[in-house]
Design goal:
Layout lengths: L1 E3 L19 H10 L3 H4 L7 H17 L3 E3 L7 H12 L4 H9 L2 H4 L4 H8 L1 H15 L9 H12 L3 H16 L9 H18 L3 H15 L1 H17 L1 H18 L4 E6 L2 H11 L10 E7 L2 H14 L1 E2 L5 E2 L12 E6 L5 E8 H9 L3 H8 L12 H12 L3 H12 L3 E5 L5 E5 L4 H8 L1 H5 L1 E6 L2 E3 L11 E5 L16 H33 L13 H11 L4 H9 L5 H14 L6 H10 L8 E4 L7 E3 L11 E6 L3 E6 L3 H9 L4 E6 L7 E10 L4 H11 L3 E6 L8 E10 L2 H12 L4 E7 L6
Parallel strand pairs: 4-8, 14-18, 15-17
Antiparallel strand pairs: 1-2, 3-4, 5-7, 6-7, 7-8, 9-10, 11-12, 11-13, 16-17, 16-18, 19-21, 19-22, 20-21
Helix pairs in contact: 3-5, 4-5, 4-10, 5-8, 5-10, 7-8, 8-10, 9-11, 10-11, 10-12, 11-12, 12-13, 14-16, 19-20, 21-23, 23-25, 23-26, 24-26
Length: about 750
C-alpha cells in the first residue's frame, strides 16, 4: 500500500515530499520511525552476530525503498520495520526478521532472488520469495466459496510457517494504517482480511492477532456500527467498573485463602465478537451479559482445577457453561478451563483458568515455539505447549524444514483430503480428494456441469471420470444440447454434483412420465368412447377438480405422472373421468366405442403404445429378455417403475401376467426406431490365442457395438463361452451378426440369449 515518488538527494534526509521547512516536526517523527534504533530495543534476544545480519537487511531494504512513500506520506521503510517489530514480539529468528524487512523489495524495488541469495543466503531469499508469491494471489471475496478456497490455498502454498507469520504481521500493520488508504478500497481490503487472514491466524492459534484483525476489519466494513458499539462498550465499562473491581478483590482474597498463587487479568469481548453475537442471536447490547471476564494464570495444571473449585464456591456456576479445553485441547493448541458464573448483582462473568505456558500458546499459537525456545527452554516439553498436533507441527518445522512434509501433516487437521486445481483463467478451486472433472464442472456452475461433454487436463484430452490432482489446469468443454448422464452418479464425489445430476434426471423422468401418462389416459378414454382428451380449459376445470378429489392427487400433472409411473391404472381413472363427463352432458361416441372394443387386445382396453427408443426414463426395456425391434412385445406398468417392456414369451412377463393382468398394455415398435437396442448373444469358440480378437472383429464388421462381455472364470477349458451384450437395430440386424459370428474361424456356435445376461 504505497506510492513511488522521485528519490530524495540524501538517503538519511527526512522525506518531506516538498513540504515547507515549518513542517519539519512530522518529518522528524517519520525519520525516527524509519530508523533501525526503534527496532533494536526489541531484538535483545538475538546474538550480536544475528543482530548484525538483521541490521544489514535493514540497510539493504532502506536503500531499496529509497524515495518510496506510503499513502500517509511516511517513508515506505516504516512499513517493513513495523512488520519486523511485530515478528520480534513473537521472538522469531533472525532469518524471518530479515525476510520481514525485505518482504517488499523483491516485488516493488526490482531486486532479484539471485541478489538476495548472494547477499543474505538461500533461506532468507526463499522466505521473501514465498511472501511475494502470496502477494500475487488475487482474492475475490464476492464469491461465496472463494474465501474458503483461497484460505486453504494460502496455507497450502506456504513453504515455511514463518512465511505465514510474516504475512500476518504485514496484514496487521496494513490494517492499522488502513485509514490512510482511499475509502473506496476499505471494503475490499477489510473483507479480504476478515475472510482469509483472520481465520488463518485463528487456525494457527494466533488469537491476539486474530482478534485484532477481526476488530480492525469490522471498523472499516461497518464504520457506523463500530462507532456506536464502541461508545456503548465504553459507557458499560464505566458503569461496571465498581462491579469488576469488587469481583477482582473477592477473587484475590479467595485465592489467597486457598494458597493459590494466581495472576488475574481482565478480559473484554472484542467489538466484533459482541456484534456477531448480537447479529446471530438477535440480541440488543443490553442482553449481551458476558462482555467482561477474567483470566486466571496459575503455575501448574492442577492449580487450574483448584482455582475452578474455589470460584465455584465463591459464585454460583451457570449450568451448561463449563468447558474443559485442557483435557481436550482445540486443534490449534488452545488450552484453558472456561466457566461462566453469576457474579454480584446477578451479572454473568466468564472466567478462564490456564497456566503461563497455555497462555502464551493461546495468544501466540505457533509463534509460541520461538518464545519458549528463547526465554524458557526448560519449559518447552510437548505437554506444556499444548496438543500433540501443535508439538509435532513444531518438531517437523524445527528438524526437517521440509515444507511438503510440514504441510502434509498440518492438512490432516486443517483441511483433510483437499486438492487444488486451476481454471484456464488461473482461478483457484479447492476440491475434495478423489473429485473428478464432473465435480469440477458442477463446482463452477450447475449449467456447466449439465452441459459437459469432454475435458482437457493440462492441455490433454481425458475421460470425464478422471480424478483431479494438485496443480491440474482443467478445461471443460460444453454443448448447449448436452444433458447429464446417469452413469456420472457412479463416480462423482461432491454432494453438489450428485444432487444436481439427480435433480435433473428426476425432473426429466417426471416430464416423460407425465407425457406417457397422458398418452395412456387418452387411449383408455378412446376405449371408453371419448375421442378428445379433456384439456385444462374452464369448461373441464370442475371435472378435473372432482377427478383429483377422487384420486387424491394434488394436481393434474401429478395424476398424469402417477399414471405414467404405473402408480395408477389408466383405464380405472378413465372410467371415473367418463362418468364425470357424462354427468356434465358429454356422452361417449357409440361408433368409436364399438370400433375400439372390436380392435383392442382381448386382455386390455388401454390401446397401444408405439416405441421408437426415444422414451428414455419413462420406458424400460427388461434386462431379463432384452427385447429389440422385430420381437413381439408386451408392456407392464410396474408400480412406480413406469412402463417395462418384455418379449411376449418372457417367463418373467408370463408370471406377471398371471398375477397382475390389468397392468399390461399393448405396445408396438415404431417403423423407424431412433437408436440401437441391447441384445444378448452367446458365442462358443475353441480356446486359443487371439480368439477374442477374431470374435470382436466379426462383431465390428457387422456394425454391432459391444456393450458388455463376460468370459467366465475358467480359462483352462478347450472351449470358451463368450457372453456378449451388443447393440443392434432390430432382429434382422441381429441375424446378420449371428451369421457373421458363425462363419468366423474357431467359432463353434453363436446364438441369441433371451435370459438374463450379466451387465
Amino acid at each position: 500500500m504505497g506510492t513511488t515518488v522521485k528519490p530524495t538527494p540524501r538517503k538519511d534526509a527526512p522525506a518531506t515530499n516538498g513540504a515547507p521547512s515549518s513542517d519539519l516536526h512530522p518529518a522528524a517523527i517519520n525519520a525516527a520511525a524509519a530508523s533501525f534504533a526503534g527496532l533494536t530495543s526489541k531484538l535483545d534476544y538475538l546474538s550480536p552476530e544475528d543482530l548484525e545480519k538483521v541490521r544489514l537487511a535493514y540497510r539493504f531494504a532502506d536503500e531499496a525503498h529509497l524515495g518510496q512513500l506510503r499513502n500517509n506520506g511516511e517513508p515506505y521503510i516504516t512499513h517493513p520495520i513495523a512488520v519486523a517489530a511485530q515478528c520480534a514480539e513473537w521472538k522469531i529468528d533472525a532469518q524471518a526478521l530479515m525476510a520481514a524487512l525485505l518482504h517488499d523489495s523483491l516485488e516493488d524495488c526490482g531486486v532479484t532472488k539471485i541478489e538476495l541469495i548472494e547477499r543474505f543466503g538461500s533461506p532468507v531469499a526463499e522466505l521473501v520469495d514465498g511472501l511475494t508469491k502470496l502477494d500475487k494471489l488475487q482474492f475475490n471475496t464476492r464469491e461465496e466459496n472463494q474465501a474458503e478456497s483461497f484460505r486453504k490455498m494460502l496455507l497450502a502454498m506456504a513453504r515455511d510457517v514463518r512465511v505465514i507469520l510474516i504475512k500476518l504481521a504485514d496484514r496487521s500493520h496494513n490494517m492499522r494504517t488502513l485509514a490512510d488508504v482511499p475509502r473506496a478500497k476499505w471494503t475490499r481490503i477489510a473483507s479480504e482480511t476478515l475472510d482469509i487472514y483472520a481465520p488463518i491466524a485463528h487456525r494457527l492459534g494466533l488469537n491476539q492477532t486474530y482478534r485484532e484483525l477481526q476488530d480492525l476489519s469490522f471498523r472499516y466494513l461497518r464504520p457506523w456500527r463500530y462507532t456506536v458499539l464502541s461508545k456503548a462498550v465504553t459507557k458499560a465499562r464505566s458503569r461496571r467498573r465498581d462491579l469488576i473491581q469488587k469481583v477482582q478483590k473477592e477473587m484475590e482474597a479467595a485465592f489467597a485463602a486457598a494458597g493459590i498463587c494466581a495472576r488475574i487479568a481482565g478480559r473484554e469481548k472484542t467489538l466484533f465478537s459482541i456484534y456477531k453475537k448480537m447479529d446471530s442471536k438477535h440480541l440488543s447490547f443490553a442482553q449481551v451479559t458476558d462482555i467482561y471476564g477474567f483470566r486466571v494464570i496459575v503455575p501448574q495444571v492442577i492449580d487450574c482445577y483448584t482455582a475452578l473449585g474455589v470460584l465455584h464456591q465463591l459464585y454460583k456456576p451457570l449450568p451448561g457453561k463449563f468447558k474443559d479445553h485442557i483435557a481436550i485441547a482445540k486443534l490449534n493448541g488452545y488450552q484453558s478451563l472456561h466457566t461462566t458464573l453469576v457474579g454480584p448483582s446477578g451479572v454473568n462473568v466468564e472466567f478462564q483458568m490456564r497456566t503461563e505456558a497455555m497462555h502464551v500458546v493461546a495468544e501466540s499459537g505457533v509463534a509460541a515455539h520461538w518464545l519458549y525456545k528463547v526465554n524458557k527452554p526448560e519449559d518447552a516439553p510437548s505437554d506444556r505447549l499444548g496438543t500433540k498436533w501443535l508439538q509435532s507441527l513444531l518438531d517437523i518445522q524445527d528438524e526437517t524444514r521440509d515444507a511438503g512434509e510440514f504441510w502434509d501433516h498440518v492438512k490432516v487437521d486443517l483441511f483433510p483430503d483437499a486438492v487444488y486445481v486451476f481454471t484456464p483463467k488461473s482461478q483457484i478451486m479447492a476440491m475434495p480428494r478423489g473429485a473428478t472433472i464432473v465435480d469440477f464442472a458442477y463446482s463452477i456452475h450447475s449449467n456447466v456441469g449439465d452441459r459437459t461433454v469432454s475435458a482437457r487436463i493440462n492441455g490433454e484430452q481425458v475421460p470425464l471420470r478422471t480424478e483431479l490432482k494438485n496443480g491440474d489446469v482443467v478445461e471443460v468443454v460444453t454443448e448447449t444440447t448436452a444433458t447429464p448422464n446417469p452413469a456420472w452418479l457412479g463416480f462423482v464425489r461432491t454432494g453438489r454434483a450428485r444432487s444436481k445430476i439427480r435433480h435433473h434426471l428426476k425432473t426429466l423422468a417426471h416430464t416423460e412420465s407425465e407425457e406417457l401418462g397422458e398418452k395412456l389416459l387418452t387411449q383408455a378414454l378412446r376405449a371408453e368412447g371419448i375421442e378428445g382428451f379433456p384439456d385444462g380449459s374452464t369448461v373441464y376445470e370442475p371435472i378435473w377438480e372432482k377427478l383429483l378429489r377422487f384420486t387424491g392427487s394434488k394436481s393434474k400433472h401429478e395424476l398424469l405422472t402417477d399414471i405414467g409411473l404405473g402408480k395408477r391404472i389408466a383405464h380405472i381413472v378413465a372410467k371415473r373421468l367418463v362418468h364425470l363427463l357424462a354427468d356434465s352432458g358429454h356422452r361417449p361416441n357409440a361408433l368409436l366405442l364399438t370400433r375400439e372394443r372390436f380392435t383392442a387386445h382381448e386382455s386390455t382396453s388401454q390401446g397401444s403404445i408405439t416405441l421408437d427408443g426415444s422414451e428414455n426414463a419413462s420406458v424400460q426395456f427388461a434386462k431379463c429378455c432384452r427385447p429389440i425391434p422385430g420381437d413381439t412385445i408386451v408392456g407392464y406398468l410396474g408400480r412406480g417403475e413406469g412402463l417395462v417392456v418384455h418379449v411376449h414369451d418372457c417367463p418373467v412377463a408370463k408370471k406377471l401376467l398371471y398375477k397382475d393382468a390389468e397392468r399390461f398394455i399393448n405396445v408396438d415398435w415404431a417403423d423407424e426406431p431412433v437408436r440401437p437396442f441391447e441384445a444378448g448373444v452367446m458365442v462358443t469358440a475353441k480356446n486359443g490365442k487371439g480368439v477374442l480378437a477374431k470374435v470382436a472383429a466379426a462383431l465390428a464388421s457387422a456394425e454391432a457395438d459391444i456393450v458388455h462381455i463376460d468370459m467366465g472364470h475358467d480359462g483352462a477349458q478347450e472351449d470358451v463361452d463368450f457372453r456378449f451384450v451388443i447393440g443392434v437395430r432390430d432382429t434382422g440386424h441381429l441375424a446378420v451378426v449371428l451369421r457373421n459370428l458363425s462363419r468366423t474361424a474357431s467359432v463353434m456356435r453363436a446364438e441369441r440369449r433371451k435370459v438374463a445376461t450379466p451387465a
